[in-house]
Amino acid sequence: MEISTAEIAAWVGSFLWPLARVAALMSVAPVLSSRILPRRVRLMLALALTWAIVPLLPPMPAIEPISPAGILVVAQQILIGLSMGFALRLVFGALELGGQIITTQMGLGFASLIDPQNGTQSTLLSQFYTLLGSLIFLALNGHLLLIGLLADSFITLPPAPTGAGRELLWGLVVWAGHTFAGAVLIALPAIASLLVVNLAFGVMTRAAPQLNIFAVGFPVTLVLGLLVILYNLPTLFDQLNSLFDQAFLVIGQMTGRSG
């Protein structure tokens, strides 16, 4: 039995193109790209997911993997995977930004730790919101929805040397603006409450200059900020649910899925 070079290239391409998209998505997707998971585990997860998806996909293009067209296909798959993962990552960026804003208003900007998920330095509330968002994401089966959108993207946006680029990037730019507004809405209750408190302390300082405003104001703003966060948790759950729904809708639109 003889196997031609074209058949070998077809077999390699049928696994290589999906693997490039899956690996790119998992390198930036929230929870799945967490540094808590060792790189070996993430690589094995990407290989296993690709192996499970490949039999369900339509035939891949008969393109030599080591050729200019093959390199373009790989680049396209990486771009699509990164765009899908980054669209969902922006939701967690909104959580981190909202936590950063609240932390600054509460006077805890100096308290920062290394985020074990991303390996970067962030504030306490940013880590709290990120952890809370991860739990809600898993509770809503967001990881399963993301995998489903990934599998569908190979049908609506199959591997090809051309066909993706400007639309994906423009969709991310528009979605980034919406997530920034979401970050402001997350932090708005705490900002409004602490602004009123700071104005009250300003009036007290003018009325009683001998009052040590720093000794009184810091614990009051800290306790009030924590109470506002606790009171606003049910609203935060609804906001996160809405942001995740919009993120999945944006991913579907970027990959050509209707509905």
Automatic annotation (TrEMBL):
User: Could you tell me the superkingdom of the organism this chain comes from?
Assistant: Bacteria
Q: Which Pfam families match?
A: Bac_export_1
Q: Which GO terms describe its cellular component?
A: bacterial-type flagellum basal body; plasma membrane
What InterPro entries would the database entry show? FliR, T3SS_IM_R
Main subcellular location of this protein, as a coarse class: membrane
Q: Which UniProt keywords apply?
A: Bacterial flagellum, Cell membrane, Cell projection, Cilium, Flagellum, Membrane, Transmembrane, Transmembrane helix
Q: What is one process in the GO biological process aspect for this record?
A: bacterial-type flagellum assembly
What is the membrane topology noted in the UniProt record heading this document? Multi-pass membrane protein
Q: Where is this protein found? A: Cell membrane; Bacterial flagellum basal body
Sequence intervals crossing the membrane: 15-32, 44-63, 69-92, 128-148, 168-201, 213-233
Q: Report if keyword NAD is assigned.
A: no
- Functional note: Role in flagellar biosynthesis.
Q: Which family does it belong to?
A: Belongs to the FliR/MopE/SpaR family.
NCBIfam families in UniProt:
fliR
Instruction: Please report the name of this protein according to its UniProt entry.
Output: Flagellar biosynthetic protein FliR
Which gene produces this protein? fliR
